[in-house]
Amino acid sequence: MLRIKSINITFGSYYQHTMFIEPKNSKGWLEVVCGSMFSGKTEELIRRVKRARIAKQSVRIFKPKMETRYDKAKVVSHDDNYLDSFPVDSASEILDWIDGIDVVGIDEAQFFDDGLPEVCNTLANAGKRVVIAGLDMDYLAKPFGVMPNLMAMAEYVTKVHAICMQCGSVAQYSYRFSKKGGKVQLGEKDQYEPRCRACFIKGMATQTAGRRR
Ligand SMILES: [Zn+2]
Question: Which of 109, 50, 40, 110 has its CA nearest to residue 78?
Fold first, then answer.
């Protein structure tokens, strides 16, 4: 058992390392980096795009205009790592700004309109590498916006994980303390925390019990 496990890990890391050094002139493809809040999605997007830039490829990152949590014209991760970005009103607007661009980054993909998967396909079909980062689930643990479609269409999907703030396990849920507000609520650490399955369920049950009281 142990032996098989170690072979899988070796193969997995080989695969991870080779998939991002494909030559510039290869055909296009889609990569999705998904996970909960605080899972390092944006850091991973920035890392990949920076490496493409080091490889002398022209890159541009887009994000929806509504995402104004930190800075209007930058993609900023929680650890202040950033790259300049292009805020757009709609997914289709991306197509107006990709002349001469080899690698297209898309951040906060879950907030884009329904047109994003088709736009991403168009870009990949035109030979571009598209790196997409987004929340895969909302605060109710439901698949978020266009993310399921993007994950289905992508060649490569990487799910990154946070650490559960309750127990230290691997976390995949964005637990929200506040009961107010709709699905689209942007937040910082005081409103959300990453939780594992067991701690997420426990928290949701407590909130429901609180409502009935
Ligand atoms: Zn936990």
Answer: 40
pLDDT digit string (tens) for 67-118? 555 555 566 555 555 677 889 999 999 999 999 999 999 999 999 999 999 9
Q: Which of 44, 108, 118, 193 is catalytic?
A: 108
pTM equals 0.81
Ranges of beta strands (E only) in the chain are: 29-35, 59-64, 74-76, 82-88, 103-106, 129-135, 156-160, 162-163, 170-171, 173-176, 192-195
If one counts the domains in the chain, the total is: 1
Query: Does residue 18 lie in a domain region?
Result: no
Residue 84 is assigned to a structural domain of this protein:
yes
* Residue 44 annotated as catalytic: no
Whether 107 maps to a domain, the answer reads yes
- Ligand 1 center to 202 CA (angstroms): 9
Q: Are 158 and 40 in contact (CB under 8 A)?
A: no
CATH number at residue 87: 3.40.50.300
Range(s) of the domain holding residue 51: 26-161
Q: Is residue 117 part of a domain?
A: yes
pLDDT band for 2, please (50, 70, 90 cuts): very low
Q: How far is the CA of 191 from the centre of ligand 1 (A)?
A: 17
